[in-house]
Amino acid sequence: MKGYSSCPACHAGYYADKPGSQSCQLCAHGYYTGNETGTVSCKQCPKGNYCPYPGFDPFPCPPKSVCPAGSVAAIRCTNVVQSANINTQECNYTAWFYIFTIVLSFCGIVLIGWLSFVFVNKIKNSQRVKQFFTARRDRLSARELDPLDIRTVIIDPSSDRPVYGGL
Q1: Which of 73, 100, 113, 126 is 20 to 30 A from 40, alpha carbon to alpha carbon?
Q2: How many structural domains is the chain composed of?
């Protein structure tokens, strides 16, 4: 190995991390040695490439995909709302994402408003609701006012303001 004279030569994709080590370690995911043998460390897969096999050199990232540093596989930016940014190696949202988001939000708001309108009108026009409020109004108008009842509201004729009886 390079740097250590008494270690066995490790195969491509493996490394010996300590002087005098008699065993070789497999490179971690996203790291590689390439075709080199006898190495003492693995290299991280560079940005814009992916490294599925530690014993091979990195593969270039395919079109419409991103490969951040340390990638084992390419990440596809496949749908309409994403695009691959080769500078940052990230899938970015396109204008279509924002258009879809705004249109769907608007449709949701319109639907909720329409359903609320239909529901309220259905309740307002319900015969049972009309009967309830008519009966309540009739009971209140037929009730005699008791000046000692703390719930009684008396209208002061001089000011047209309600005066609460009782406490």
Answers
A1: 73
A2: 1
| Burial label, 39 (beta-carbon count in 10 A; 0-12, 13-18, 19+) | buried
Work out the number of other CB atoms within 10 angstroms of the CB of residue 125: 9
Segment 46-88, tens digit of pLDDT: 999 999 999 999 999 999 899 999 999 999 987 777 888 878 8
* Concatenated DSSP letters of 74-96: -EE--STTEEEETTTTEEEE-HH
Note whether residue 24 is domain-resident.
no
- Is 106 within a domain? yes
In a domain, 122, yes or no: yes
Domain limits for position 138 = 96-164
Q: What is the pLDDT of residues 6-20, one digit of tens each?
A: 556 788 999 887 777
What is the radius of gyration, based on Cα positions, of the chain?
39
Query: Does the predicted model carry a pTM greater than 0.85?
Result: no
